[in-house]
Design brief:
Blueprint: E1 14-15, H1 20-27, H2 44-64, E2 67-71, H3 79-84, H4 89-110, E3 117-123, H5 138-154, E4 159-165, H6 168-181, E5 185-189, H7 203-213, E6 218-222, H8 226-229, E7 243-248, H9 255-260, H10 269-280, E8 288-291, H11 297-303
Parallel strand pairs: 1-2, 1-8, 2-3, 3-4, 4-5, 5-6, 6-7, 7-8
GO molecular function, one term: metal ion binding
Keywords: Metal-binding, Methyltransferase, Transferase, Zinc
Binding site for Zn(2+): 223, 292-293
Length: 311
């Protein structure tokens, strides 16, 4: 049974974790083929590594009395990526459920002092997170993502969050599948350095189009540096109040530069928090802040000090 609790402004800000894949690869020196963290759920050693990773963020939230959104490590746990990694449908179903079970265990065992915990099942795009040449139609996207969303719901996720989405068609399909299941759903678009989606449309146009066809519970923006997100907010309209979360990159690199990089660019945590703080002033409904590529507990610790401007 899923909860109807969603993040809002009843707390100062909900924190999330950082960039799980880059943290696990570059700071914890784990091998993640195809940039996938979910296979770690399949071994006791992997689960221990994930517990250690999430505990850092739980401790930050507890130390600051913050609310926390725990996102399962299942961003890549969909059929195409599962096939590449040797996991058929039944195994993917099992591991998606295991991701939520791990979050529930952490909530029970570790979150004393945290203001509130919401558990979200993380969903990713069918294709590469920066792809512009592969565009799913809504019905195809709904059919593709439905099994993962069903597994997350059956395991007891409060909601699901679809991250690094580049096309409106896939976003609409994900929302429709989640609505069929009865699972609250958030959609997170990624943007390029100019604030536009990789497909070239504006963030405003993408949110407006998805809201007209299949509105999610809210939107986020992720996998872009805060200074790349800021241009997307230059001409605000009613759509801007639909953005409730930001999970930003530490680096100012473009997506193309990321694909060519051989070393981690983790930026400066204090500067990162200042840049995210600038977005807080532009997003009146913002309730969730966290990190994406290159960020870790240092960056989220710095974000914990952010406060909303006076009303």
């Amino acid at each position: 049974m899923t909860s109807t609790r969603l993040p809002d402004q009843r707390h100062e800000l909900f924190l999330t974790d950082g960039g799980i894949e880059t943290d696990l690869i570059y700071r914890r020196h784990l091998d993640l083929p195809h940039f996938a963290a979910f296979p770690l759920l399949d071994t006791s050693t992997g689960r221990a590594a994930l517990r250690n990773y999430y505990t850092d963020y739980i401790d930050i939230a507890a130390a600051n009395g913050s609310a926390l959104m725990l996102e399962s490590p299942t961003w890549r746990a969909n059929p195409d990526w599962g096939t590449l990694l040797g996991y058929p449908a039944l195994e993917l179903n099992r591991l998606n459920k295991a991701g939520i079970t791990l979050m529930r265990d952490l909530q029970t065992q570790r979150t004393s002092g945290v203001a509130e915990v919401i558990i979200s099942g993380s969903v990713g795009p069918r294709y590469d997170g920066y792809a512009t040449d592969a565009c799913l139609q809504p019905e195809e996207a709904a059919n593709y993502h439905r099994p993962q969303l069903q597994a997350l719901a059956k395991a007891g996720a409060d909601m699901a969050s679809a991250y690094t989405i580049t096309h409106t068609g896939e976003a609409i399909g994900i929302v429709r599948a989640a609505r069929d299941i009865g699972l609250p759903i958030a959609v997170s678009f990624t943007v390029e350095t100019d604030g536009r989606l990789p497909s070239g449309i504006t963030l405003a146009a993408a949110i407006t189009e998805v809201d007209a066809a299949a509105p999610p519970d809210y939107f986020l923006v992720n996998c872009a540096h805060p200074t790349h997100i800021q241009p997307a907010l230059a001409n605000p309209g009613p759509w801007i109040k639909r953005i409730v979360g930001v999970r930003a990159n530490a680096s100012r690199r473009s997506h193309a530069e990321f694909d060519q990089a051989t070393a981690l660019d983790d930026g400066d945590p204090a500067e990162f928090a200042n840049d995210v703080g600038n977005l807080v002033e532009l997003l009146p409904a913002l309730a969730v802040v966290g990190g994406c590529c290159g960020t870790d507990s240092r960056h989220i610790g710095a974000l914990a000090a952010i406060r909303r401007p006076p009303a």
